[in-house]
Amino acid sequence: MVQKVAIYCRVSTTDQSCERQERDLLEYAEKSGFEVVGVWFETASGIKHNRTERKKVMALAQSHSIDAILVTEMTRWGRSTIDLIETLQELHSWHVSLIAQTGLQFDLNTPQGRLIAHLMASLAEFERDLVRERVRSGVAAAKARGHKFGRQPGQRVKADKFEPKVLQMVESGYSYRKIAEKLNLSKTTVNDIVKRHRESSKKSDSTVSESETFAQ
After folding, report:
1. What pLDDT, on the 0 to 100 scale, is given for residue 94?
2. Does pTM surpass 0.85?
């Protein structure tokens, strides 16, 4: 049975082109005997959260319209180790594989795929630990300076309402995706809350430093 695949190409800036990725992946699909249902192009940085074209490909996977997704390399698909393993788990639940042109294939139905996923899950957990530790240190430092968690100028009421819970869940090791699901928020909102908290902490550090310099 011929596998139906979606080709996903991504570049980081508008100055770059997806032409090479498209050409290489179309050749790879032809040699592998895949049926290409479409090619999706994305211009976004590796850390950008709003990837509209990737969402379209994920929707195809969820609706069982494709059997696999082709990329030139895994870094074109995942923003981070955590993001990659989470999307792999979703794809696995829909019985869809993620295949890189380099030959690396994440098919959780195979022993090799499960082993790689297990190793990546361990790396993702390590990454979450680092984020949790950074947030915990930031919260403790902010409290020591007398910082009160609340609405900042320009901060939305919704973010203000969920900020304490979001920061607590980040500290507990939840991924942004899980936090968004549990609190019925978008991942963008969760990311904005954490980002504003970190920026607020940095500003507080800067203010303290300036005060100490003036006092001298």
Report:
1. 92
2. no
